[in-house]
Amino acid sequence: MSGDAGFASIPGPILGRYLELQESLGRKYGVERGVLKNLDRYLTIGTDATADLDQNTFSSWMRAHEALASGVRRNWMRIVYNFCLYRRRTEPACFLPDPALFPPLHVPIRPNIFSEDEILRVLAAADRLGPHSNSLLRREVYRLAVVLLYTTGMRPWAITRP
Length: 162
Description:
Layout: H1 12-24, H2 30-46, H3 55-63, H4 70-88, H5 116-127, H6 138-152
């Protein structure tokens, strides 16, 4: 496999050598290869085709992928960061993204605090439930679950909302 196979941008040959090195070390770099191919395609098509990787092209490439989840964007940025570290070994002046500007690891989920009126409506709905063939105590089980969850502050994983 040649070092620049499939890469057409200015850093393309280096991208190929980087992936070739990582794969020769026994790493499976399928996701990384896809991300770096995406960056290469952006550098050749999305910009003026003579653009090298710098802060402006990196930022505009990430803005083009704002629809991705923050964790996915962070991972893509980390992949490019690792490539830039590799590139810096031979080109000390090349661009290196600032990890402080990466999205946070996980966007915290804001809890939903129910009002007393909302809980009373949920309890009323539970009281209207009838027995089921699998659970003759369905009404009582749902009522008890709502009361326990509300009074203790527990949050079931299935009910949490972003």
